[in-house]
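Consider the following input, taken from an annotated entry for AP-1 complex subunit gamma (Carassius auratus).
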Amino acid sequence: MSPSVRLQEMIRVIRSARTQGEERGIIQRECADIRAQFRQGDNGERSHSLAKLLYVHMLGYPAHFGQMECVRLIASPRYSEKRVGYLGAMMLLDEKQDASLLITNSIKNDLSHSSQFVQSLALCTLACMGSAEMCRDLATEIERLLRASQSYIKKKATLCAVHIIRKVPELTELFTPSARTLLSEKNHGVLHGAVVLITELCERNPDTLDQFRKAVPELVQIMKGLVTSSYSPEHNVAGISDPFLQVRILRLLRILGHKNDTASDAMNDLLAQVATNTDSSKTAGSAVLYETVLTIMDINSESGLRVLAVNILGRFLLNNDRNIRYISMTSLQKIVQTDHNAVQRHRGTIVDCLKDQDTSVKRRALELSLALVSAVNIRSMMKELLIFLSVCPPELRSQTASGIFNAAERYSPSKRWHIDTILHVLTTAGGDVRDETVPNLIQLITTASELHCYTVHKLYRALVKDIAQQPLVQVACWCIGEYGDLLLKGECEEIEPVQVTEDDVLDALETVLQSHMTSPATRGFALTATMKLSTRITDNVDRIRSIVSIYGSCIDLELQQRAVEYNALFKKYDHMRAAVLERMPVMDKNSPGHTNGDTPGEIKEPDTSKPKPVEAGLLIEPASQVCDLLDLLGGTDTPLQPSPAPTSTPTATSSADLLDLLGGLEPTPVPSVSVYEKNGLSLKIQCDKQTETEVTVTLTASNSTQNDITNFTLQAAVPKSVQLQMKAPSGNVIPAHGLGQVTQTVLLNNPNKVSLKMRVRVAYSNQGAIHQDTVQIDSFPSAACQPSVSPL
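Applying the prediction step yields:
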């Protein structure tokens, strides 16, 4: 049999193997035969043996023993052996192996060969696996071939020059003169390579960019020739003349016209001509139009041209191809901030994309829909988004709810509409909202004093109907505890009043306390609401006393502590109960410790240069039973602010004396140190020493970009002598514009008292891009060495 048949026969036998073990046996026998052929020297079969070895390599089996044979075949004078040798070098060698240096001289000789086919083999190999040293040695040879007479060699030399520039950027000046002359070539392959080479030169060297801006008229003429040329079978793709070259030219024009008025003016007419004359019914035409749009948006183009580009993207939204719809919405997302009105014209089409079956398209449509929300269309857009929230996939609910909250806070036409919208979201997807939603909604309710009666009635109905959505139940319990007297009066003009008795309200709260679906945090809200009702009702105080006393022996320490404190109010401090449980004052949105949608401009870093006393709006860790007694509202993020009382009454005097017990507590402020700042994400670390060996580390992440950061995760590692325990994070979505934070608590036990070090891995997604970084923390804030609060 001839050698070629032997190769085909080996392929046939390997493919006919029934098991993996049988295939391995066949390949082992063949590799043994190939080694024997290599040892026999020049017998005319080496190239065919190497070809068989390359097929074995393609199947994933070791073939490293053929590397030196590649070097020998490349040095052979026969073209058939050179071809297989160069192919083997491209597959078996790379720049990290020493054997690759042995072929440098052979490549240099072949670059000067009289046959253009031998030259092309050397060019392809150098462009594929040439190391930086090889590129430096052979750069002058490549520059000489750029001026060769054959287009076949010019094309391959151009692409080889691109590889050299990427490996050795300082060689850009060597290829700049030749690259400019290549633009006068008629061969499309050479032109394509020249445009790629010029693009690489411009991206690597700003000085080169200024030189090639003078070639913009020449590039415009080449592009016009492609757009207006007649049918050419050699270059026609779906009715478009060489779309690959057109895309490359448009990409280069985008680089040359960026932030340059002269270059931008020279290409405006061309871009308008391409945008209006290119057929978008085929994929090739859509590719050219897409690059045209990107170029228009990136240069200093005219306003009418930008509107035309947005309209092209709007047409893409109607395309049946989901890939085209996806890239269209991705591009619109980037320009919606600068050309908001132009994108608004396609709002209906974008909203329709929310109904697409593809999750990726839905996600892009959601991001773009949220970006299009404004004060003018807030009601109509929110209606569509709420419908989408009820049917969207589980993985999009958190992002949808977060976007609705941000838009409602920014553009709400009225407080009632704002409250209704948030309650709708909590009813539909309460389990997928951010942790700060509950305190934010409570703050909003407290500021809308005229809607207290309406809100408490609506929340009571929602609580009676369903207690599965924990954030909704928490807000309902808080409102019933604060405004239970308004609920019992039954006088509400905004909503149809319902006659509710004291027993009905207590039954609802007891249902929450006893339900297996209720979380410990929600039970804390319900228990506090029950206690607060003791000052708002008259006939069922004993029942409230019995409910509270039951939880005095609860297995949950938080509930047990609250119940003990509330029992103390009933017994030892009953004369203070009315003052302590009175209605909460209106909470300031920008009060210290509050995280409800502060704008980036209003965020201020605390001054840690000197200690400050505890502010009224901040809660500190209880230091005694007296502090425990004051922590009546623990479990909410609402700051404790004791209301002023006249000094003439005994009750007020006792309250003042009791509150004055905290006068000696002035803890040293715990410093917060920034350890990571990248892509708009900021990560700060704060340390608090609990005992001699235990330290609590709090990592706080914030987001200053225009889009929410999703899938946020933190991983930490410490030395083996330190024990680490990571608590559950507060969430995995960081709101945009610094409107919220995500915290992660880490407990460290350092029994050997070694120097603390920590390595933190940060992973997150922003606008579809996945980021991952590692942060090394070698020094902790000084508060890690001192207790956070001095003992009484």
